[in-house]
Write a structure and sequence with these properties.
518 residues, Rossmann fold, 3 domains, 46% helix
């Protein structure tokens, strides 16, 4: 079952998944309200949702025009649906009076992305900021109605899919643990264990903790980029989640807890967005291209980290297609080293590539793309004496190109072996870097080919998939090394299992993955 789920998740972008989950929750709410299991009618939900979506669309378009930036459709719809799920739909007698509240919240949710931004990066979760502001300015607050008994199973399933997709269980667990501690400590419990169990039941069944943790807390643009910082962000937000906490007469709400967490997250890891201008593009292997960009500001990152790339109208005048359902945002590893002034992106193209990749391929020198949210823990260890093994499949080689180039340029001579798997010799990318790594830092490079029909007669490298026999034959001290694995999701998972069977400590296995070859 997990493999089936992962195969499904691998075919969809993160933003599309969140969008589909939110739409599904809206549909479930319509059904439950029709059955009388929610406190409002289906018409009320439709009414409030339509107003919120329309107001968000208009505001997003307007601010995008004023700020001369791309109006991202997925972003505004996701925020609008979140607002619809936490702002209580009006009763029939309130239809007209509730319109200003819905519009006011929608306008400020969109506006916060543009106005409350530092270095082109918004600081606060838009939906949380909007409902907090409405409570303070027009005394209208969110009820977080999505946190109900009947909605919980659907929120939980959808939330698990989102969290598995983006690999943020550490953040959700950190928040949940500290939120439960905070709530239990601040509650007046007098019945021993039974009282604690009753309180826990109330927390999970009658509060929005699941929706808050799975959907809002994990919003990528306000989440710290590394694991320790994410854990800190989750812990701080969790501690402030208890409804009994207050500052004078101001009691903390979920949105205020999240905004406080956003401030902590930004303080821990301030991030910016970059405008990248295409300098050149090259074919580095069959169906594999490298795009070289000049950034508007120097990037500060660690070798092996990744960026979120957002494609605007680039190539639209050269393409007959509109952006497909997989959207206009992707996460790609930075193939360049921190020692290089240019930003390199390596991309594998498939026969049925997404319109994102098709438009990317149509870019010409001088075209621009937006990138931001430098993230990732798939980086070199601080201890330079640690022995390393890099295992790459196909375009999964890009983080290792970044690491090797960094080690070459900085004279960082580590004990490192690269095992690089491809179908044929022609698919081996960045050969010049690997040859330079061998000559300058003493790296060991092992190529293996998996397509028997494409292996030359004079081939001296390895043959077949990376397996335990290959590891033991080439790396006799494998139990004393740290392994880094990058490539297609299936390959990464298979190598992880294989290394564990070789009794490699799980702490010495670091995996990178592609969230979909869309």
């Amino acid at each position: 079952m997990p493999r089936f789920i992962d195969n499904f998740l691998n075919r969809i972008t993160m933003y599309k998944l969140v969008l589909f989950v939110l739409v599904a929750l809206e549909i479930v709410a319509l059904i439950l309200s029709t059955l009388g299991l929610l406190s409002f009618s289906p018409l009320s939900l439709i009414y409030s949702s339509v107003i919120i979506i329309l107001a968000s669309w208009v505001t997003n378009k307007l601010f995008a025009y004023v700020f001369k930036t791309h109006a991202n459709a997925e972003s505004y719809v996701i925020t609008a649906l979140i607002l619809a799920l936490i702002i209580n739909p009006p009763q029939i007698t309130e239809y007209l009076s509730i319109i200003p509240f819905l519009i006011w919240a929608s306008v400020w949710a969109m506006a916060s992305k543009f106005i409350l931004a530092i270095n082109k990066k918004h600081v606060f979760n838009p939906a949380a900021f909007a409902v907090a502001l409405t409570a303070l300015t027009i005394d209208q607050s969110a009820t977080w109605w999505v946190g109900s008994l009947y909605m919980l199973p659907f929120v939980f399933v959808g939330g698990l899919l989102i969290t598995r997709k983006i690999h943020r269980f550490d953040l959700v667990i950190s928040f949940s643990v500290f939120a439960l501690i905070s709530i239990l400590v601040t509650s007046n419990l007098s019945g021993g264990l039974s009282s604690v169990l009753d309180e826990l039941q109330k927390i999970f069944v009658y509060t929005p903790i699941a929706f808050f943790a799975f959907v809002m807390l994990t919003e990528p643009l306000t989440t710290p980029p590394t694991r320790f910082r994410r854990l800190t962000y989750g812990a701080v937000t969790g501690l402030l989640f208890a409804p009994a906490l207050h500052i004078g007469s101001l009691y903390l709400t979920p949105e205020l807890a999240l905004l406080a967490g956003n401030v902590v997250a930004f303080t821990l890891s301030p991030m910016r967005k970059y405008l990248l201008t295409l300098k050149e593009s090259n074919i580095i292997a069959p169906n594999t291209g490298e795009f070289v960009f000049t950034p508007d500001h120097p990037l500060i990152f660690k070798a092996g980290q990744y960026l979120e790339w957002t494609l605007g109208a680039i190539g639209a005048e050269r393409s007959v297609k509109k952006m497909d359902s997989r959207g206009n945002r992707r996460y790609f590893t930075i193939a360049s080293s921190p020692t290089e002034s240019e930003v390199r992106l390596g991309v594998k193209f498939f026969p049925k590539s997404s319109t994102f990749k098709e438009s990317l391929a149509l870019m010409k020198p001088g075209d621009t793309i937006m990138a931001g949210h430098i993230s990732g823990d798939f980086t070199l260890p601080r201890n330079k004496s640690t022995k390393l093994v890099f295992i790459a499949g196909g375009i999964g080689i890009t983080p290792f190109r970044s690491m090797m180039k960094y080690m070459i340029d900085s004279g960082d001579e580590r004990d490192v072996t690269l095992i690089y798997s491809n179908n044929s010799p022609e698919e081996i990318a960045y050969r010049d870097i690997w040859d330079e790594a061998v000559a300058k830092i003493g790296a060991r490079i092992i190529y293996t080919l998996t397509d028997a029909s494409k292996i030359p007669q004079n081939w001296t490298g390895e043959k077949g998939q990376v397996n335990s026999a290959m590891i033991m034959r080439n790396i006799p001290d494998h139990r004393q090394r740290v392994f880094y694995i990058s490539g297609p999701h299936g390959m990464v998972g298979a190598c992880d299992v294989m290394l564990r069977q070789l009794e490699i400590n799980s702490r010495n296995i670091k995996t990178d993955y592609f969230p979909g070859f869309a």
